[in-house]
Design brief:
By secondary structure, the chain is α/β, with parallel strands linked by helices. Among the domains are: 97 residues, Nucleic acid-binding proteins (OB fold (Dihydrolipoamide Acetyltransferase, E2P)), CATH 2.40.50; 189 residues, P-loop containing nucleotide triphosphate hydrolases (Rossmann fold); 157 residues, Rossmann fold (3-Layer(aba) Sandwich), CATH 3.40.50. The protein is 39% helix and 18% strand. The protein is built from 24 helices and 22 strands. The strands form four sheets. It has a seven-stranded parallel β-sheet with strand order 12-13-11-14-15-10-16, sandwiched between helices. Helix 8 packs parallel to helix 24. It is globular. The relative contact order is 0.10. It binds adenosine-5'-diphosphate and magnesium ion. The site of magnesium ion (MG) has 4 residues, from helix 11.
């Protein structure tokens, strides 16, 4: 049960005044869906609108605040004509100007003979001062505090600052007083203020550099966030740690059979990692292991062989992929590999509805299926396993840590193997999982040729088109053409990709397909299937193909505006080709004049195919802050904390969380009750649910 005093904070924003469905949608785009999210949406800058007693001292074309007396209204008589309100600042005339204004509104905020404090950009137009659409108009007699500085929040189309502020104020001005949850030693050491003060200060225009590394108010909240995260991890991992997992010990007939019948030899790394996993599985404690391996290093086989060990012991396995396309692909591939082994396998995604879903769920519950491939649908309500022994989580960077750990299963703890193609720095795994064992696939399957990578200026596009045209005529090879993400706007994304599609489709009639994020999963799958099986040669895509698409006949990937991508992302995209032993190519189309960083990135890409090396270079170029940043869709995403300068807090938070939980694993002690507030505030409710269940 959520505590009542957190009601306001944990409510969805649509209960606030002024938030109808339309505004709600718009505000959601800022990542704000619960009231609490307003707290983390800090101003990104402060603007000055200095007060001038004498208008002649005020700089033109600058935001200023003036005191004016309203003299006369001059409403517009036809459309397009502005509505002017004649005023004086001391003795000097000034017009307040509105376009397309609603007359009664202006009359009510600027009544004749009243004195008003007005902020806005001061202009000098036709020999007269004027302010057009002032940002604030306040009654001088009612004004308590002259705000010469105003916090500015990042917004999105359809939302203005005034409206946003009005809405967020409803939350920010009613923060509850919460009992302190940080111990006094830490409070003292870091000179932290209390929770409420820290938030209020961060939204207060007097504070410079809200996000600065040393801003003590932000640091306090960063600590909270990291602490909540570490507590949640500790709770989830420790709550029933005394319950052992199962030792999956058997003759490994299934696994050996699979390996024997593979059309290839396992690489050295694959063999080594399989041994590491075997040791874990045979022990009677839960395995939590991260398997890192570059795109194409053969993680799937490792996962599959491991699952067979568990299945042979009579337990079920789940294999979770981030999208239904990928889940379907894995399902298909695995089914083929298991053809001779009579293992009962099923696919569960969000698309299974009604009767079909019901039947599948029954089979999963009754243990009639042993291997379940799926998406998030696997961890949704209503899915009960008979006896889940091992969960594989593929391409983990698309999942939230709790979803991954949600597989913790009543009775005993299923083992977890998380697979990632993006090498993850140690700080990050620590932040995400607490401690976790690691395996790496270092060598590539033999016979795979490195992908030839080159940079090409967009100016030489024609040359590229000729090359493609030549190949299309002479071979049956296929091409990916990736269009970049544009400033987080899906509409613009799509526009750019559509333009590219139209352009290519004119040249290569009926040979081009377009796939993008706004299609539903079914549509995407259809397009992928068509691309795979029919005579389509170029697939134009927004970055939706970033993760795990396996089309062997694709030999070339063109990445348009490669300068807009990070190294890790470029490498990930490049891995879409080179999946067989044909020569493959990656062409990084870039704008003519590159900045230093972009130049360096493209150079590194052309020089190496080694994902671990690229990750290291990435760290050097960008610094950990960027890598760990939110945009990377990299592991845990924090609202306040930034691991590039809060890693000291992370260490502190981890130690503190481990201490608390080992002393009071279920948070039953009185002194720890307020930690539940903390967990709710940072939406680590899953941990609280775990407490209830344990
Ligand atoms: P990833 O690590 O990117 O998930 P996959 O597991 O999808 O890679 O493997 C990529 C391709 O390489 C698959 O077609 C797989 O069958 C093949 N493969 C895996 N291991 C080997 C190997 N040892 N030798 C040759 N091909 C392999
Ligand atoms: Mg894979």
């Amino acid at each position: 049960m959520k505590p009542a005093h957190l009601d306001l904070l944990l409510s969805p924003i649509n209960k606030l005044k002024g938030v109808g469905p339309k505004i709600e949608n718009i505000i959601n785009k800022l990542g704000i869906s619960l009231n609490i999210h307003f707290l983390w949406h800090f101003p990104y800058k402060i603007i000055e609108k200095k007060y001038y007693d004498n208008i002649h001292d005020a700089p033109i074309n600058t935001l200023v605040t003036l005191k004016v007396e309203v003299l006369k209204h001059n409403p517009s008589r036809f459309r397009r004509q502005p509505y002017k309100v004649s005023c004086v600042a001391n003795e000097t005339p000034i017009d307040i100007v509105y376009f397309n204004a609603r007359h009664p509104v202006i009359r009510s905020i600027l009544p004749v003979k009243s004195f008003r404090m007005i902020s806005g950009k001061l202009e000098f137009f036709r020999n007269k001062f004027q302010i057009t659409h002032p940002s604030t108009v306040e009654d001088v007699t009612k004004i308590q505090l002259l705000r010469e500085r105003e916090p500015i929040y990042s917004l999105t189309a359809g939302l203005n600052l005034k409206y946003f502020t009005k809405i967020s104020k409803q939350v920010l001005s009613s923060l509850p007083n919460l009992e302190e949850w940080i111990n006094s030693r830490i409070l003292k050491q870091y000179k932290f203020f209390n929770w409420k003060d820290s938030i209020e200060k961060l939204h207060n225009p007097e504070i410079e550099d809200t996000f600065a590394d040393k801003n003590v108010f932000r640091r306090r909240l960063a600590f909270d966030e990291l602490y909540a995260h570490q507590l949640a991890i500790a709770i989830i991992r420790l709550i029933d740690s005394k319950k052992k997992s199962v030792a999956f010990k058997n003759n490994n007939n299934l696994k050996n059979n699979l390996i024997k019948n593979l059309p290839f030899q396992l690489t050295k790394s694959q063999t080594k990692v399989l041994e590491e996993i075997k040791t874990d599985l045979e022990s009677n404690t839960q395995m939590i292991r991260l398997l890192q391996g570059d795109v194409g290093s053969g993680k799937t086989i490792v996962a599959l062989a491991s699952m067979l060990t568990v299945i042979e012991s009579g337990f079920q396995c789940a294999f979770m992929a981030p999208t239904s396309i990928l889940a379907y692909q894995h399902y298909e591939n695995i089914s083929i590999l298991l053809e001779n082994l009579s293992i009962k396998i099923t696919l569960l995604t969000g698309k299974d509805k009604g009767k079909i879903r019901k039947e599948k769920l029954e089979k999963i519950r009754d243990g009639e299926v042993e291997l379940i491939v799926g998406t998030h649908a696997l961890i949704q309500e209503g899915v009960t396993f008979k006896n889940l022994g091992l969960s594989i989580i593929d391409e983990q960077h698309r999942f939230g840590v709790y979803q991954r750990l949600a597989f913790n299963y009543k009775g005993f703890r299923p083992s977890i193997l998380v697979m990632s193609a993006t090498p993850i720095p140690r700080t990050l795994t620590l932040a995400a999982y607490g401690d976790m064992d690691e395996s790496r696939l270092i060598d590539k399957p033999i016979g795979r040729k490195p992908i030839m990578t080159s940079g090409l200026s967009l100016k030489k596009e024609k040359q590229l088109i000729d090359r493609i045209s030549n190949k299309i005529q002479k071979t049956s090879e296929k091409f990916f053409w990736v269009c970049p993400l544009i400033e987080e706007s899906q509409e613009l994304d799509l526009k750019a990709a559509t333009e590219r599609f139209n352009n290519l489709n004119k040249i290569f009639k009926n040979k081009v397909l377009l796939i993008h994020g706004q299609l539903n999963e079914k549509e995407k799958e259809n397009i992928m299937e068509k691309f795979k099986n029919e005579d389509f040669r170029i697939l134009v895509a927004t970055t939706v193909i970033e993760v795990g698409i396996d089309i062997k006949s694709a030999t070339t990937i063109i990445i348009e505006h490669a300068e807009r991508f990070g190294l890790a992302q470029l490498h990930q995209l490049r891995g879409r080709v080179g999946r067989n032993n044909q020569e493959s190519f990656c062409i990084l189309l870039h704008k003519e004049n590159l900045g230093d960083t972009a130049k360096k990135r493209i150079q590194i890409m052309t020089e190496t195919n080694d994902g671990f090396k690229i990750a290291e270079e990435d760290l050097i170029i960008r610094g950990p802050g960027e890598i760990l940043g939110k945009k990377q869709s990299g592991l845990p995403s924090f609202n306040v904390a930034d691991l590039s300068f809060d890693s000291d807090l992370l260490e502190e938070a981890k130690i503190e969380a481990d201490n608390v939980i080992s002393d009071d694993p279920k948070l039953l002690k009185d002194k720890n009750q307020n930690l539940k507030n903390l967990l709710y505030i940072h939406e680590r409710d899953t941990a609280i649910k775990t407490l209830g269940a344990g």
